[in-house]
Amino acid sequence: MAAPQDDMFSLCVDPTKVSSCVEVRFIDKIKGKGLFAKKAIKKGDTIFIERPLVSAQFLWNSLYKYKACEFCLRALETAEDNARRLSGIPDLSLPHPELCKVHPELHQACPQCQVMYCSNECRQAAADQYHRALCLGTSQEDPNHPISKLKDAWRSMHYPPETSSIMLMARMVATVKQAQDKGHWQKLFSQFCSRAANEEEEIAHKLLGEKFQGQLTVLRTLFTTALYDDHLNRWFTPEGFRSLFSLVGTNGQGIGTSSLSQWVHACDALALTSQQREQLDSFIDQLYKDVEKETGDFLNCEGSGLFLLQSACNHSCIPNAAASFPSNNFLLHLSALSDISPGEEIGISYLDCCQCDRSRHSRHKILRDNYLFICSCPKCVSQMDELDLTSDEEEEEEEEGGEAEGDDMEDEMTDV
User: Fold this and answer.
1) Using CA atoms, how far apart are residues 268 and 249, in angstroms rounded to an integer?
2) Where do the record's region annotations for Disordered lie (predicted)?
3) pTM of the shown model
4) How is residue 345 annotated by DSSP?
5) How far is CA 215 from CA 121, 291, 366, 408, in A?
6) What does the alpha-carbon distance between residue 255 and residue 57 come to, in Å, rounded to a whole number?
7) Distances in whole angstroms, Cα of residue 175 to Cα of each of 70, 195, 231, 253, 269
8) What dihedral angle (degrees, nearest 10) is formed by the CA atoms of 118, 121, 123, 128?
């Protein structure tokens, strides 16, 4: 069940005090910190719920009319409106419309720039934390505004599927700009790993090499013009901007929200006769077929956020925990995938399900390029004797990727 909207403002005022069943420990210079269980955790238990320090919807996702609250990323379309848009069927009617948890009557716009929020609480929270510094007012549609230029430049370098956003960095700057205690926020952000390279393993982030210096220079210039602040002058230097870029690239946790998905889950919980269940399941199956035909895989409002406690979780190819967003907003629920003993490290997968099933060589390549480390989890150790070869399917993907690099998109950033 979705958490009441009022509750999310009491969660994670201090993200390090969310849960009494975990603790952050320093491991070593290579792995840095890790998250460990302080007591026994059962499979299926919610380990903690965390609100991000900052979050932002992806820019292409927003441009493609995926409507989300500017603060908490809650989907703003009703389940029926969402289904109509995604399926391309304008007169589609969903059964059990009362199961939709979206309340358009509560939505509010910023009085100056008209960006939308799911509630007055979110509108006020955004204004208090960062929006006053970023509000474009009547220039919201002006392509020559410095922030608009920054967004356009990012879109031209970073195509779907998206994994990060320059606006996450912008909201970090704006948060410090507006804060009375600027040092408090700077200290919180400094707890995220922000190295642009792993000197011990001689690994550099794939988007911070010489190939992308031109794009990084353009972004830094636009970023500085739009957002420069004396208190954060180090973030605007070439090296500081690279670190900030690396911070959001390696720590940003993807967030997905969907009013349609929430409606489907609510339908699953209905007490129905076998005939009613069969009819409803058939309707939903056909709806997803229509959506796949019209829209493909991009079903959710998507963005990313910086979660201080979750970022302490190290990667494992056989994770014992996973993050989800069942409240249809930015509240991250970390749940146990297996029983976890006291003192055991809590590991999550930085890879998606398909990537986890790939060969050790392919998994290592993804983790090395994006997260700057070589995995030594039990699964990887057990596969050490495997040849450094990818499957046929993976080889085809890599060949296609290599061909794309040789075309006009050679210098474009396509992943963070």
Assistant:
1) 36
2) 387-416
3) 0.84
4) B
5) 38, 35, 22, 15
6) 8
7) 15, 22, 12, 19, 40
8) -150
Report how far apart, in Å, the C-alpha atoms of 273 and of each of 4, 134, 208, 278, 287 are. 30, 52, 57, 9, 21
pLDDT in tens, 206-242: 555 566 678 899 999 999 999 999 989 999 999 999 8
Nearest-angstrom CA–CA distance, 119 and 72: 10
Spatial distance between the Cα atoms of 416 and 396, rounded to a whole number of angstroms: 21
pLDDT in tens, 149-189: 999 999 998 888 888 889 999 999 999 999 999 999 999 99
Is cis: bond before 161, omega within 30 of 0? Answer: yes
Tokens of 148: 């608009």
Sequence-distant (6+) residues with CB within 8 A of 52 are 253, 255, 305, 306, 307, 330, 332
**Pairwise CA distance, residues 375 & 356, whole Å:** 12
State which amino acid sits at residue 256: G
Could you give the CA distance from residue 192 to residue 375 in angstroms, rounded to a whole number? Answer: 19
Token pair 């010489």 is found at 210
Token reading at 237 = 């230097």
Q: How far is CA 19 from CA 32, 291, 344, in A?
A: 21, 39, 16
Q: Which amino acid is at 26?
A: F
H or E element in which residue 238 lies = helix 238-251
Instruction: List all residues 6 or more positions away from 368 whose beta carbon is below 8 Å from its beta carbon.
Output: 201, 203, 374
CA angle 58, 64, 67 (to 5 degrees): 70
Long-range contacts of 122-130 (CB under 8 A, 24+ apart): 122/5, 122/69, 122/70, 122/71, 122/72, 122/74, 123/71, 125/9, 125/71, 126/70, 126/71, 128/178, 129/54, 129/174, 129/175, 129/178, 130/54, 130/171, 130/174, 130/175, 130/177, 130/178
| Owner of token pair 């409240």 | 327
